[in-house]
Amino acid sequence: MIALWRKAWREQRHHAGLLPLTTVTGVLFFGQAFVGAIEATGGYPVHIVVLHTLTAISLWISLGALVFVSGALQADGVADYQFGWRQRVKDFFILSKPLIVGLLLVTTYGGLVAGGKAWPSASLTFWTLLGGALAAGGSSALNQYIDRELDKNMQRTSRRPLADGRLTPAEGLSYGLALCLLSYYLMAGFVNLLAALLSLAGIFYYVFFYSVWLKKKTVQNIVIGGGAGAIPPMVGWAAAAGNLSLGAWILFAIIFMWTPPHFWALAIVRLKDYERAGVPMMPVVVGEEKTRKQILIYTVELVAVTLLLPIFNLAGTIYLVSALVLGVWLLYAAWKVFRVGGNKTAWTMYRWSSMYLAFIFLALMIDAAA
User: Fold this and answer.
1) Could you read off the pLDDT of 198-236 as tens digits, one per residue?
2) Which member of 143, 289, 345, 360 has the lowest number of beta carbons within 10 Å of its beta carbon?
3) Do residue 318 and residue 279 come from a single domain?
4) What are the b/e assignments for 103-127, b being 16+ CB within 10 Å?
5) Is 0.85 topped by the overall pTM?
6) Residue 227 lies in a domain
């Protein structure tokens, strides 16, 4: 299997069917062995037994499909890399959108600490964050695979590995599928079923519901699509608590309300990019003035939602003071966007909102573990 995997990645990097299929088959092959080991040593939990069975079925199907398409494998194929291995490693890393993954992991860990009301064990932290990183990175790769033609028309994204041609579409698809599959196996095997299913739901939400459908269809793409980015803290909460109580849903609501003003601010700065690509972001459809008003409205609602945690006695003084201070800080940035306008204030709002989210989840962690 390893030899076949290596041959496909070296010689069939342009083959849209063979490379992804070989990659998925390889992950399923090793996933079957992994799940079998977990099953035998863990007392045969029902969800692992079911996963073992489904993996076996999927593996046989993928093997059959691989045999069917393997006629395309060239006997005398040669590697046709245009770049060295260092550049390729860098490109695959970029394909995962590491900065976004990092912010999502902060929110995941925030949910992990808040759900357990204490600093989690090193083991639970490691497997939850690793699974979350793989899910987010895989989703990002699949998003760029879907948007590769659109990205060519935007200055901000035209240098991405798939849009720029440094990686082939087959490589991007294969990489994304592999990371997403690995994520589910690790979550199901080392965390718990609820966390694994939530992570899987986030992948489907972002890849299919947002990337395939919403992004290019409606001005509400970011509003509705924000649910995908709001799932990671629920994954963390489920990993620690094994349930989704009120606190988990409030964390979901915080990120859900944070997403529109954050990305609308970016859309104001990159208005021409979105116009050229035909993406119906709010500034493109209704204009900058109405978008600035919506940024302020959503920011007010966001700050109000963050205060629900102490209102329901789910957070203490440290979080309350932090939420108020950070809320005033972000409201000031949103007010300037509304009153002053322009790319400079919008860019400030975009940067500040990223820091705001990280800081408020950091405050939540400190408060929950205090």
Assistant:
1) 999 999 999 999 999 999 999 999 999 999 999 999 999
2) 289
3) yes
4) bbbbbbbbbbbbbbeeebeeebbeb
5) yes
6) no
